[in-house]
Amino acid sequence: SWQLDCRPTPPATTQSLENLTTRKLVVRKHPEHSDAVIVDTLLVNTGKESRDFPGLLLRFSDINGRTLASRIFQPREYLQGELSSLKSMASQQPIHVVLEIRDPGSQAVNYQMRLVAAKGQNRSR
Q1: Helices in the chain by DSSP H: which ranges?
Q2: pLDDT for position 79
């Protein structure tokens, strides 16, 4: 007989996200596609050691704080072009992240980005 471990996934350790931050988060209309927006941010590792890339939780909400859309972008999704070969975030090297996503609509007046543990990364460091 098989046994299935149904315990919840442990949350990201504080160490895995320690010293990682986003700066200059901007959401703007896409210049070519009317149903899309462009999300720009800088990821920065302010610590002295390299860190794994985090997941990016992007959330849009209405004027009352209700979530209208949210999604976690994994590093393989947001590290494009020459950045796709990076294995970790070097200390003090800002990484410019640009996401092209579907417009969450005119009711989405607030947005925020949180860093979360990326799927499949070693959390036991």
Answers
A1: 14-17, 75-78
A2: 95
Residue 9 has pLDDT above 60, yes or no: no
pLDDT tens digits along 38-89: 999 999 999 999 999 999 999 999 999 999 999 999 999 999 888 889 989 9
Which pTM was predicted?
A: 0.82
Within 8 A by CB and 6+ apart from 41, the residues are 22, 23, 24, 25, 26, 56, 96, 97, 113
Alpha-carbon dihedral 84, 85, 90, 95, rounded to 10 degrees: -20
Tokens 């999704």, residue located:
77
DSSP per-residue string spanning 97-115: EEEEEE---TT--EEEEEE
Which H/E stretch holds residue 22?
A: strand 20-29
